[in-house]
Amino acid sequence: xxxxxxxxxxxxxxxxxxxxxxxxxxxxxxxxxxxxxxxxxxxxxxxxxxxxxxxxxxxxxxxxxxxxxxxxxxxxxxxxxxxxxxxxxxxxxxxxxxxxxxxxxxxxxxxxxxxxxxxxxxxxxxxxxxxxxxxxxxxxxxxxxxxxxxxxxxxxxxxxxxxxxxxxxxxxxxxxxxxxxxxxxxxxxxxxxxxxxxxxxxxxxxxxxxxxxxxxxxxxxxxxxxxxxxxxxxxxxxxxxxxxxxxxxxxxxxxxxxxxxxxxxxxxxxxxxxxxxxxxxxxxxxxxxxxxxx
Amino acid sequence: xxxxxxxxxxxxxxxxxxxxxxxxxxxxxxxxxxxxxxxxxxxxxxxxxxxxxxxxxxxxxxxxxxxxxxxxxxxxxxxxxxxxxxxxxxxxxxxxxxxxxxxxxxxxxxxxxxxxxxxxxxxxxxxxxxxxxxxxxxxxxxxxxxxxxxxxxxxxxxxxxxxxxxxxxxxxxxxxxxxxxxxxxxxxxxxxxxxxxxxxxxxxxxxxxxxxxxxxxxxxxxxxxxxxxxxxxxxxxxxxxxxxxxxxxxxxxxxxxxxxxxxxxxxxxxxxxxxxxxxxxxxxxxxxxxxxxxxxxxxxxxxxxxxxxxxxxxx
Lengths: 294, 315
Description:
The structure holds two protein chains of two kinds. By secondary structure, chain A is mostly helical. In chain A, 72% of the residues lie in helices and 0% in strands. The relative contact order of chain A is 0.13. The interface between A and B is large, with 129 and 137 residues.
């Protein structure tokens, strides 16, 4: 096509609506967050510049504990998601009758409104009447009712399990797609040479899906770090702060207590971690392929 | 020549491919190999089905339990010992739920309206942008695409404070737009990525032929590219709609307090009474609420998986 300059102008014109939208709704708020984090903004309209006071305040409090908790929560959630998702993908990749149906059945947690799935888990965790405590009692594994969301330790794991549940379908379907894009010739050649099923998995499937697994882990890491709905609906960060991750902590400070300035400082801390994850992501996935060779 | 990016998997594939060429030459007839390679012994079948059953149990347990709860009378629900199967089960809750929360249908309509509007906004933004990324080598293209993708890493929760102020300034608090506008923004990046991948597969020769025939660039986009890209646009529309339907919580929780605008996720809290939660009606209402999406999935499952994975595996 002729006219690279007019082509560029045309391209920017095409991009303009999306670009302006994102700048207004994502980029400007991001800058505003950083700006607010140095102020004592609250419900009243007027506020002052307070320098690093908000940051000094949050690090004087139990913020370190919240950071550690967030990382532990995220680490376990992502790891378990990846493990279950990989197992699920391997199972659904098997050429057995009914697999098309099984693949559809994997999707509900991911596509139904998150809040609904979380309500259902909330009921299952109920100590008196819920399914988990009830079944464990019926099978004689525990003696009395266990109210999973009432104790810090169990609530911490309960929220992880629900987060895993919501994340597993995406991991499974993503890895399944990666497995199916492996050329069948490889398997047939290996089979001809007498390689067993397990050997083929270890020497063909696994190495071929490692890039997809790394990509998915990082995407999952970012999503999990941002997880809000699950903890908020199940525990609101409780009991006594045991499920308060950085996101919940920010929400409670900013929206719960109307401390916008201090909340913004906490949000900035989240953004710093997210940027690090994002850098890792772009690094690992490689420079974004824009088809420059064309 | 080709503008198709090489996937990470393909890159890995090449050395292995070369190694595999030799054995393939002496391979048995392909069909026989295909049939043999997928043959399992009975214990392999048993292991696979047992594994799938366990996996699907984990994935579906809350729905199964939720459905059982929706069939149980409230008095049965709050009784020990626990029983999985509903005794005296009935569909009563599916009728009484409309009486307990008379405005419930409104929440579903709101959810559908918010998702549909968000999807339309996303499509208007994304179709031209994806075309620009797929076709024109303008300066800064890689960086800009990266910037769009970086939006994905922020959730609404992180930017909630300034978004709240922004919505208040624009006078959008407590309207549908307070939920639609921020919601759509976070759906744009993946949609661009998905549609760009699709458009890069459309042969460039088509654009060039239109250009030679004297068509303007805009005309080419409207009359040549759009019709061909329709299946891709449809996939993007479906995934965006489902994403919008699934993720209506935090903005609705924070930016709207008017009952008449509440989406499903927030509206369901109406079943949380002052004393106790009306669990059987809550679960019945949940199933009514997810019915639209479930219908979508059953009919459009193939496109959905194709769309999601096309975008995903290319990364």
